Amino acid sequence: QSALTQPASVSGSPGQSITISCTGSSSDVGNYNLVSWYQQHPGKAPKLMIYEVNKRPSGVSKRFSGSKSGNTASLAISGLQADDEADYYCCSYAGGSSFGVFGTGTKVTVL
Amino acid sequence: QLRLQQSGPGLVKPSETLSLTCTVSSGSVSSNSYYWGWIRQPPGKGLEWIGSIHYTGSSYYNPSLKSRVTMSVDTSKNQFSLKLSSVAAADTAVYYCASPDVDTAMVVYWGQGILVTVSS
Questions:
Q1: Does residue B42 come out as left (phi exceeding 0), alpha (psi in the -120 to 50 range) or beta?
Q2: Could you tell me if B90 lies within 8 Å of chain A, comparing CB atoms?
């Protein structure tokens, strides 16, 4: 079971939009609409930002949106703000012998 | 709103067994809505799913850790636990307990995290 592939870093200026990709396989991302995204600030537990590919939990800003095409899921952040600077992880249900598999993580920097 | 409170030692010797417990409040481990899971994060690295267990006994373990992992649910204490045997320095990490949703696999509720260092 391999980790899902994410870019190591993505950056943008305040107000801009960025997109983070998450590439898996037909055994995980491509086979289930159960992709979630987590935001993690240093020293904190992860926070759920998106679930079931494109659904936002209550309280999460509409600036965050998710999508999926084939074996690749994406997280978009619009209107970038200073507090968006954090690490982001995708996660997919993987069925079989493993419940979930995380992505490698992406560090978002607000310039 | 669930609350997950972790407990356990922060230092474990190589070759010994790491044991952590997560106490659930404002909810029940006997809920059909959740699995009970463990996720770890080595210092400066990414998240890794260790495994998940339902109170009925259904369980999933990361294949790379399966031979060393034991997870259990104690309904009388409203707790669930992780044991990881034969630990080595590579097992040094922040360990989180979590509550993956049965239907969506999302994790809304997380424990506070415990840094477990494997060192003699």
A1: beta
A2: no
